[in-house]
Design brief:
The protein is mainly α and about 280 residues long. The chain is built from 10 helices and no strands.
Length: about 280
């Protein structure tokens, strides 16, 4: 069978994709290269030597910035947001399988924060805390602000997942004598585990990278995005690029761990399915 000739649309879409990849990863690669400037190097090309000096300098005491502290705070916020988003989204997905009075109102209220500009939510939460006489901090007000961003995404994903979930698996488990909790623990969660990992990945990355909702809610201690923004106006050395390279590496590491977990779950399912087939 001969394939038809590739028309202009094919080459146009191919060129568009190449430009998109360059636009997406070009700045990241530039920062990666410049982070290996020599000790006397600057923020632009040409490079003056090649070294890891700025990575070492990154973890030393700085005149401006608290890299280690801001990184730790963002990691803690990301993990907490991930755990709460996964648990709340899964529980909401279970609850919304059955219609109840006011479910539509609750749903739209839950995802309304996706429509409201992030900076307004940050400003509103910060003002509310001050009106109540509480000091905004990264582990209270900023944590709540991040959840207004991560939870709606988690809810939408879990609603779509549960919409395709075959409830006959649960009925079969109950017919075999399983309680509701045993059914959820040994049937529902294992089946939905790849989706839960995906929700957790969304929750972590959205919180880890969030700037606008942290701006007026983090208090006196910056998260990593706020620290990086502050560095752009104060730091004039490639240590800024070294920080960008490290944070990008952490992001890819988290994505890799999540994908690895999904692949491991799928292989275990395939192996168990094969063992069950042999036993039959």
């Amino acid at each position: 069978m001969q394939h038809g000739k590739r028309g202009p649309a094919f080459y146009f879409l191919g060129a568009f994709f190449v430009l998109f990849v360059l636009f997406l990863y070009g700045p990241t690669l530039t920062i990666l290269v410049l982070s290996f400037q020599g000790p006397t190097g600057g923020l632009t090309f040409p490079m003056v030597g090649v070294s890891t000096y700025w990575f070492t300098n990154l973890f030393e005491r700085q005149m401006v910035g608290d890299f280690a502290g801001s990184f730790q705070r963002s990691m803690i916020l990301g993990v907490l947001s991930m755990l709460v988003t996964v648990a709340a989204s899964f529980a909401a997905g279970l609850a919304f399988r059955a219609r109840f009075r006011g479910s539509a109102v609750i749903f739209y209220l839950a995802i309304a924060s996706l429509i409201v500009p992030s900076i307004l939510i940050s400003l509103g939460i910060g003002l509310l805390f001050r009106v109540l006489g509480w000091d905004p901090t990264w582990y209270t007000s900023a944590f709540g602000a991040h959840l207004t961003w991560t939870l709606p995404f988690g809810l939408l994903i879990m609603f779509a997942v549960f919409n395709r979930f075959d409830r006959r698996y649960e009925e079969a488990a109950r017919d075999l004598g399983a309680t509701s909790w045993q059914t959820i623990r040994h049937v529902v969660i294992p089946i939905l585990l790849p989706s839960l990992i995906g929700v957790g990945l969304f929750g972590f990355t959205l919180s880890y990278d969030e700037f606008a909702r942290s701006l007026y809610t983090a208090g006196t201690f910056n998260t990593l995005p706020l620290e990086i923004y502050g560095m752009t106006t104060n730091v004039t050395t490639p240590v800024l690029y070294a920080l960008g390279t490290v944070t990008t590496g952490v992001s890819f590491l988290v994505i890799g761990v999540a994908l690895g977990a999904v692949i491991l779950v799928q292989r275990r399912r395939a192996r168990h399915g094969s063992d069950a087939g042999k036993a039959a």
